Amino acid sequence: MIDLHETISEFSDEKLLEKYAERSEYTEEAVKIYEAEIAKRGLDPDAETETEEQAEAATKIGSAMVKTLNRENFESIGRYFSKVDIMTANAILRDSNITYIVEKHKDDDNLYDILVYKNHDVPRSRLGELLFPGLHRGDYEVDKAMNALTLAQTLIEEHFEAGSDNRHVLRKSDIVDRIKSFSPYDIKLCDKSANEPLDVDFENREKAELIKLAEMLLDETDRIEEETGRIVFFHDSLETLIGKLKNGGDITRTDFLAILEICQIYCDDPRYNPALNSIAASILDFFWNDVVQ
Asked: Phi and psi for 248 in degrees, rounded to 5?
């Protein structure tokens, strides 16, 4: 069965679900391996799951796995994740060869926990592949094993740190990664919602930093597009945003997207104030919650 586990771990999501649909032809043990891989990826075996639905899908599949593998054999990773952060945590662990489930907090629908299957150890050679890409299996002794819970905690702690209220929070460097990985194509807005006024205000120092960068981007758009090969999607919205920040005006979702793009373009620039990262992270959270509500 180890060979089957390694084989299906190389499957694309589409192929994995396609093969799982044929489970009536498999042994009970083989079906368990497929279900474990599906749960790791946060997939819905009955339908394609949209990104914004994956947290819920992972909990549903996790519940099915618990019935099969026994809830008592799972142990919490420690500390909870927000709706947004659980997606990052799931992406970190899904390729780790660890069997785990995502479970919603019993008292708070906005928090999630990760529980690791205690009877599943991971060879240290696999740890070498995960933490030191490019190393060969022979660089670590295959006959030694690392407890799956310990490995899961190690991988999570590379990207998260302890926050308040027993929660994981992304490290600052990972907030920048979230900003960089943002794509405007991920946000689908109709004209009405795009221009709907939002109840939001910025501090004066935040406005000053945003105005400075927006004016810079207006002047540097051609150079940035030529040097990076990217399109500045919200160039035409910058003057409107600057006017609102200077003179007052209702901030809209379109303005939020323009601010995200500004932060994404300049977050590595020495002229960029890192304090804006928290604004960008809050806007990303806003759009996520906007989608799932």
From this structure: 90, 145
Instruction: Identify the domain boundary among 122, 143, 170.
Output: 170
Going from the C-alpha of 131 to that of each of 7, 177, 179, the distances in angstroms are 21, 18, 23
Domain end call among 170, 185, 214: 170
pTM above 0.85, yes or no: no
Q: Dump pLDDT digits (tens) for 123-180.
A: 444 333 333 333 333 333 333 345 788 888 888 888 888 877 788 877 765 678 778 8
CA pair distance 124, 138, nearest whole angstrom: 10
CA dihedral 124, 125, 126, 132 (to 10 degrees): 100
Nearest-5° angle of CA 290, CA 242, CA 213? 90
Question: Helix, strand, or coil here: 200?
Answer: coil
Q: Residue 286 and residue 30: Cα distance in Å, rounded?
A: 41
What digits encode the pLDDT tens for the residues 268-282?
Answer: 899 998 888 888 888
The torsion angles phi and psi of 84, rounded to 5 degrees, stand at -75, -45
Return the amino acid letter for 277.
N
Residue 114 is given by DSSP the state E
